[in-house]
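User: Hello, beginner here. Can you help me understand these amino acid letters and fold codes? It all follows right here:
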Amino acid sequence: ILPTGWMAAENAQIEPGDTVAVWGCGPVGLFAVQSAFLMGAERVIAIDHFPHRLELARKFGAETINFEQSATYDALMQMTGGIGPDAVIDSVGLEAHGMFVDNAIDQIKASTFLGTDRIHAIRQAILACRKGGRVSMPAVYGGFVDKFPLGAVMQKGLTLKTGQTHVQHYLPGLIDAIMEGKIDTTFLISHRMPLDQAPEGYRMFHDQQNEVTKIVLKPGQ
């Protein structure tokens, strides 16, 4: 997860003084927040709707937007003087939730085999990014999508980078960064449970996303 968040920030080509917006405050998004600051971002704006996850983002220095309380695009424009973030990171992916029109349409298309993914987060990230900005997509998308704002990518001159994480490439340096206290990983594990309670752990992870970040299952407990 940590290499994924780091590569997400690296793909955003962050420059000193940048404003970076991160969609999703799950483990990948929270590591992307920390990584963006380490790479020189002046401001990081984290977007989610779970209060505890937004609190964790603020702990790492991010400003936050609760998309259930504010219109994300409008809030980002207000926070960036109408320009948009220099770089955006989609850490949400194909299972984006929320009562949004495009999400409902995507769900209908998926159920009728006219599409596969809900792409609300990446649509929003592309539309919010400033002209000439960078779009990083560590989030997983599985197949065919509809209403992808390709025209905005071209007209705004955006750079889009994505791909599976090069874990082995990044891990040695990240372990050093952890040992030097530059990256905090202690927030990640919210629960520890015996292996025979794995079904309950998966239920918790599904149903209690505000409280649960990651669960470690220990055999023999």
DSSP finds nine helices and eight strands in the chain. The two ends are 25 Å apart (CA to CA). Residues 167-179 form the longest helix (13 residues). Strands lie at 19-23, 43-48, 63-66, 87-90, 134-137, 159-162, 189-194, 214-218.
